[in-house]
Amino acid sequence: MFQLLTTPSERSYAHRHLAELFAHHAEWLCSVDQTEAYSLHRNEIEISISSDRLMLSCWTEKGTRTWRILDWFWNGEILAVHGSRKMGAEQPLIELIPRTSASAITATIRAARQARCYRIAELACALEPETRIERASLSPGARRGQPGRYARIILRRKRQRIAVAASVVPTGVGAVDAFLSAALLWFQRTSERIRPPYIDQLWLIVSKEILNSTIHRVSLLRDGLRQIIKLYVVDDALSLLEPKACPDRRELWKKRTQRFPPVPPASMTPQTLAIVDQAPEAIDVVHARHGETLRYFGLPFARIRSLMGVERVWFGIEGSHRGMLDDASVDDWMNLLNDLREHRSAVALDHRHALYRSAAEAWLESLLRKDITKLDPGLIIAPLHAQFRTARGGKLGIRPIDMLALRQDGRLAVIELKVSEDREHVLQGADYWRRVEAHRRRGHISKAKLFGDRKIRDESPLVYLVAPTLRVHPSFSTLARCIASDIEIYRFDINEDWRSGVRVMRRMRVN
User: Which listed CATH number (3.30.70, 3.60.20, 3.40.50, 3.40.1350) goes with 104-252?
Assistant: First the structure.
């Protein structure tokens, strides 16, 4: 069972225990959210306490990454921790295994997950009389030969089949969209291929931690699909399945939500204006409570904070050393700006350079922030809210909405951007719609004057799902048809060379 880190003593104990583990084993096999595993030497892993937080730093294929550890679990064979980056927007499951042979590790993981899969199948089978297990297998892994993280179970009765989907690895709130997307696609494809008796039910078996998030997603599905879904909660010991009701969406609107704080007028300091003037077409400003973050085509490269009434500038790219701008560091500052001009540009020669490849979605967002009418001429240019959080304080597991905009006719638009294939695109957009609609119904958006004195129509928001034409996931249409038709979802295909300027190639209603 995962151990939460909520007190200084718990963090101190975890720090001491994990440091001993890393010192005891020379090599580790690391995977982040079940992606491709890679080897780490203990010198490439650092565990520390900073600002009363337990931090884990290690090398990844994207460079050095640092996570705040939310909880941890060590069973003698696998060290699993839930990490947090970017104010909780990313909460991956990080698995670290003392290195033996890769094949032995893979076989051990597969056997453990298969055992959990079959145990869940036995629990599900016991719920229905005269039912047997027809199939209990794992989903394909992220790479060939790797074990999957989801159980795919078929139960058989005389004139009925039941599909059962569950996760065989610890699943956090941030992975709900991935789990449900995988379950819906598997159910759809299996239902089309199987011979009579046909599958007429889909059971979703989840942990208590993701129950509410799963209920929210299921409430957004079309009626015919939602009515055949049953939801069960499994305990950590895999000893009991407890049925849970999936309330109608109208019941969800009755739940209370926190109001938005008033939006203060955006103002830039003279020092911020001076930096923006060096590349006004590329640099934008993100305002925060304690200062401002400057981004070069979406990539944060400088932060301005006021300390004791004096403005200070820190600069540097995430993952590298950040320094304070002063007389001694002017050369480093100019070198950074020159590197950004050369490599983070639509006409850059080296497309493999880190500055070109990093934060691609933020780059697209920055272009649309300059002129959102390139996406839809009916949208107002300002105000436009990027990385908009519907929960005060950025609650863990609540990801920010890429963009929240308003049309000229007073209707809200929720915009979700992707620049690479992402199976979760549809469910993410639908969940953002639910959160914005909950606040709109209570008048929170109007009262907070997010769009000034403009009147917001008494209609649900539109959902714009944006991606380059060749980067739309193959399952996009299948998942879009699973969403209720009263949620208006539009697909925007943009040009592949969007860095040179965004052009909409095709727009269509998908559900």
Answer: 3.40.1350
Residue 103: its H or E element: helix 102-125
- Scored b (16 or more CB within 10 A) or e, 356-375 reads bebbbbbbbbbbbbeebebb
Query: Can you tell me the distance from the alpha carbon of 397 to that of 392, in angstroms, rounded to the nearest whole number?
Result: 12
Give the per-residue pLDDT at 264.
61
Residue spans in the chain of domains classed CATH 2.40.128:
3-100
**Buried b or exposed e, range 65-97, using 16+ CB within 10 angstroms:** bebbbbbbeeeeebbbbbbbeeebbebbbbbbb
Strand bridging mode 160-167 / 199-206: parallel
pLDDT, one tens digit per residue, over 492-505 is 999 999 999 999 99
pLDDT(393) > 60: no
Highest mean pLDDT out of 5-19, 28-42, 318-332: 5-19
Give CA torsion, residues 443, 449, 455, 456, to 10 deg: -50
Contact 204, 215 (CB under 8 A): no
Distance from the Cα of residue 253 to its chain's centroid: 24
Q: Are 368 and 502 in contact (CB under 8 A)?
A: yes
Q: How far apart are CA 467 and CA 364, in angstroms?
A: 10
Residue 394 has pLDDT above 60, yes or no: no
pTM, rounded to two decimals: 0.80
Distance CA 367, CA 499 (A): 8
What is the fold, at CATH topology level, of the domain defined by 360-509? Trna Endonuclease; Chain: A, domain 1 (3.40.1350)
394: left (phi over 0), alpha (psi -120 to 50) or beta: left
Whether CATH 1.10.575 fits 3-100? no
All CATH 3.40.1350 domain ranges in the chain, comma separated: 104-252, 360-509
Burial class (CB in 10 A: 0-12, 13-18, 19+), 196: exposed
How many other C-beta atoms can be found within 10 angstroms of the C-beta atom of residue 110?
16
Which amino acid makes up residue 251? E
Q: How many residues are listed for the chain in this entry?
A: 511
pLDDT digits (tens, 9 = 90+) for 191-244: 998 888 999 999 999 999 999 999 999 999 999 999 999 999 999 999 999 999
Q: Average of pLDDT values for 50-76? A: 86
Q: 3 pLDDT exceeds 70? A: yes
